[in-house]
Amino acid sequence: ETGVTQSPTHLIKTRGQQVTLRCSSQSGHNTVSWYQQALGQGPQFIFQYYREEENGRGNFPPRFSGLQFPNYSSELNVNALELDDSALYLCASSFSDRFGVHTFGSGTRLTVV
Amino acid sequence: AQTVTQSQPEMSVQEAETVTLSCTYDTSENNYYLFWYKQPPSRQMILVIRQEAYKQQNATENRFSVNFQKAAKSFSLKISDSQLGDTAMYFCAFSPNFGNEKLTFGTGTRLTIIP
Fold first, then answer.
1. What is the spatial distance between Cα A96 and Cα A29, in angstroms, rounded to a whole number?
2. B101 touches chain A (CB under 8 A)
3. pLDDT class of A1 with cuts at 50, 70, 90
4. How confident is the model over B42-86, as pLDDT tens digits?
5. B17: Cβ–Cβ under 8 A, 6 or more apart, which residues?
6. Which value, in Å, is the radius of gyration of the alpha carbons in chain B?
7. Which strands sit side by side in the sheet containing A64-68, from one edge to the other?
8. Nearest C-alpha neighbor of A110 from the set A19, A17, A4, A16
């Protein structure tokens, strides 16, 4: 198993800029989910992709968008960054035969200044 | 909407002792899954244990076991013979048994194992 890898591990951006975070899913997994984890909080669901289509979205504005590619890797894009977007962004992949069992990456720590 | 509550922000226990972490949840669904995930300083969330709501039997994974009380909407995690490597944030999570696999997490309990 290759696990879930995320890049970059840390990132500093200025308010108003755009950012792209990347995730490589575990081999054989066809579903990818993104979560935002603010400091001292539990992760919050952003959205999920299944076979390249968005398959559910949490309470996040449209400036949070994503893509899933044919090889099941994924991107999270955030436009017009705000200070409150500073958080750890976690990518998780899963396979539909074990509902809710996610393999998580180590996250990207985004700081918006 | 589902909510998950963890009322113990921090806990500590001596190595080799037993510790229980509490979790309550609220949902109108009848079929769902509950999870405990562990987040060590490496930041990677790791699945500890999974419980299917329709199963009466409590799940166990080696030193980890749960006490699932469906009527009370309670889902506690017991760690037996605690080890230094158990030091981490522990998150209780909920997922309905349909649709996407969205996980709803609690705010976590920071567990420290003291040598």
1. 8
2. yes
3. low
4. 899 999 999 999 988 999 999 999 999 999 999 999 999 999 999
5. B82
6. 14
7. A5-7, A19-24, A74-78, A64-68
8. A19
Amino acid letter for position B24: T
> Could you read off the pLDDT of A68-109 as tens digits, one per residue?
998 889 999 999 999 999 999 999 998 877 778 899 999 999
Across the interface, whether the CB atoms of A102 and B43 are under 8 A apart is answered: no
Residue A2, pLDDT score: 67
Give pLDDT, residue B71.
94
The H helix count followed by the E strand count for chain A is 0, 11
Percent helix, strand, coil in chain A, to 5, is 5, 50, 45
Residue A14 to residue A21: CA distance in whole angstroms:
15
A12 - beta bridge partners? Answer: A111
The rounded distance, in Å, linking the Cα atoms of A18 and B62 is: 45
A9-49 residue pLDDT tens: 999 999 999 999 999 998 888 899 999 999 999 999 999 99
- What are the chain A neighbours of B37 within 8 Å (beta carbons)? 104
**DSSP of B73-99, one letter per residue?**
TEEEEEE-S--GGG-EEEEEEEEESSS
Residues 41-80 of A with CB under 8 A from B: 41-45, 48, 50, 55-56, 58
Dist CA B41 CA B78 (whole Å): 21
**CB A89 within 8 Å of CB A108:** yes
